[in-house]
Automatic annotation (TrEMBL):
Residue ranges annotated for the TerD domain, each copy included: 1-190
Species per Swiss-Prot/TrEMBL record: Ileibacterium valens
Highest classification ranks of the organism: Bacteria, Bacillati, Bacillota, Erysipelotrichia, Erysipelotrichales
InterPro entries in UniProt: Stress/Tellurium_Resist (IPR051324), TerD (IPR003325)
A Pfam family annotated for this UniProt entry: TerD
Protein name (database record): TerD domain-containing protein
Top-level division of the source organism's lineage: Bacteria
Family: Belongs to the CAPAB/TerDEXZ family.
Length: 191
């Protein structure tokens, strides 16, 4: 059983024995509302240093080199361009973070989703059934789901939430801020 996250909710990423999770996976699951319509949603992560992106290496997205600077602790799936790579309740794109390896100067990792070429294709999250999922990667245990379709039907981008250091442990804070923007528009908020 997993939680249904709402905007503003904080999820403690500790195990029942009090130890922190070692790996967390944030994934996107989506299917177009109208069959035969392709919707390219991208999941990205911003590695923040006291709330700011300090270099291009702090952005993990579908085109990040697999051997890039953050590759020792962040892994991005292949790019799903249609949402058809998985069916129903399966992950279309994901980012996995080894929390034990995150450098101390990375204070939080913000996860964002945006519809690629939303202006050209005239698309928002209203054209898909979608959700974000948080999973304990080590055990594959689903921790929480965050429904995206209804509250963000008029948005092309969503700041989903952030994995943040808190009192020597990690938490996931659900942000749930929708907007009309592309990846660069969201990046500007953290520079």
């Amino acid at each position: 059983m997993s939680l249904d996250l709402q905007k503003g909710f904080t999820l403690d990423l500790s195990k029942p024995n009090g130890a922190s999770l070692s790996e967390v996976r944030v994934s996107l699951i989506w299917d177009p509302v109208i069959q035969g319509t392709d919707v390219d949603i991208d999941l990205s992560a911003f590695l923040l240093h006291n709330g700011k992106i300090t270099s291009a290496a702090d952005v993990v997205y579908f085109n990040t080199p697999k051997n890039g600077p953050a590759s020792s602790y962040v892994l991005h799936s292949d790019d799903s361009r249609t949402g058809a790579e998985a069916s129903g309740d399966d992950e279309d794109e994901w980012i996995q973070v080894n929390l034990d390896r995150v450098p101390a100067n990375v204070t939080s990792i913000v996860f964002v989703a945006n519809i690629f070429n939303y202006q050209i294709n005239n698309q928002t999250f209203g054209v898909v059934r979608s959700l974000a999922r948080i999973t304990d990667s080590a055990t594959s245990k689903r921790l929480a789901d965050f429904a995206l379709s209804n509250d963000y039907a008029t948005d092309s981008a969503i700041i989903l939430g952030a994995v943040e250091r808190q009192n020597g442990s990690w938490v996931f804070n659900t942000i749930g801020e929708g907007m009309m923007a592309d990846l660069n528009g969201m990046l500007a908020r953290f520079q």
